[in-house]
């Protein structure tokens, strides 16, 4: 999106505000499906947790996407957005048997990643098809917080426990319709991905009633100039061929599924915030904005880099700024960044603000969460109102402790 357009949106809808470029989401969706055009049955299930606004879900629904959900509430949101139950897969971790049964009742696909729950579910509902989440123990990326395939990870059933899975399936006569893995975010090396896929194929051979193999996600997107991103086109070429060969051996045309979040929405998003004050200390110039980690926590939580530019002064001379928020804790968005000269009142734009930004926002410091705007085909749509004080107070119950004890007892 152009800076002038972003500035117009900030003027019209106020700040802080999240803006998503719907055409970018569409382009990413088409890029991914294009890379796998040689696979007969392809299913992209967008990971709702990355950005869960109902209008974003509706846009993805229009594009032909399914969704990947991790809570019963995300399932309900998907149904409200118009997805049919069979277009939804439920991939929770650490939820109760109850919640899984609730999702199964709604008719969505079920993905189980725990032997104990698998056994209980299979014993009670042997005819409901279930997909199994495998942990191939492959490290993706370098950040331990977002690598979920390693040996002591809480995600998935270890490949070393396959004999146990097979025993449960045999005893309960349950129907396994899919095999799944999700090795975590930020896969840089597609060879690592292909290696994990081989483990998945090996596992899939042991089940004779499969309908799909789900390769999860973890595609890396660029966060700054020169960043390496997952080469989707090359992955598409290599994995498609391997997948088609596997289907031939298996004797059935299976569906190849992915569940990307970041890849589809990260680059579509911009977070716009206004500079409240420029504060010069003896060593640093701080730009203090009308936001904090209550609105965008990734830099503080994961050490993520988000490019920051001053869209109010595109021609200004570059200077060094440390961009911070208004939360009464350290909340640094970027240290010593070169940014066009900042004046109080300017609007700063944060890039890659589509995935895991608004969806992780909170009301910390009793602040209001921002508005969200979806820009699509040259039109700005407000898709979430800015919160008001009423949103802060409406579930709170004010107990009056000023009345004396006798009065309470008298009631
Ligand atoms: C979070 C998650 C995804 C999406 O990961 P991205 O890195 O955003 O693509 C996919 N599958 C599962 C099971 C997840 O938990």
From TrEMBL:
TM annotation in the entry: none
Domain Orn/DAP/Arg decarboxylase 2 C-terminal: 18-354
Xref: CDD domains: PLPDE_III_DapDC
Residues annotated as binding pyridoxal 5'-phosphate: 218, 356
InterPro entries the record matches: Ala_racemase/Decarboxylase_C, DAP_deCOOHase_LysA, De-COase2_C, De-COase2_N, De-COase2_pyr-phos_BS, Orn/DAP/Arg_de-COase, PLP-binding_barrel
Catalyzed reaction equations: meso-2,6-diaminopimelate + H(+) = L-lysine + CO2
Entry EC no(s): 4.1.1.20
Pfam family, any one: Orn_Arg_deC_N
Keywords (A to Z) from UniProt: Amino-acid biosynthesis, Decarboxylase, Lyase, Lysine biosynthesis, Pyridoxal phosphate
Recorded family membership: Belongs to the Orn/Lys/Arg decarboxylase class-II family. LysA subfamily.
Alphabetized HAMAP family for the sequence: LysA
Complexes and interactors: Homodimer.
The protein's name: Diaminopimelate decarboxylase
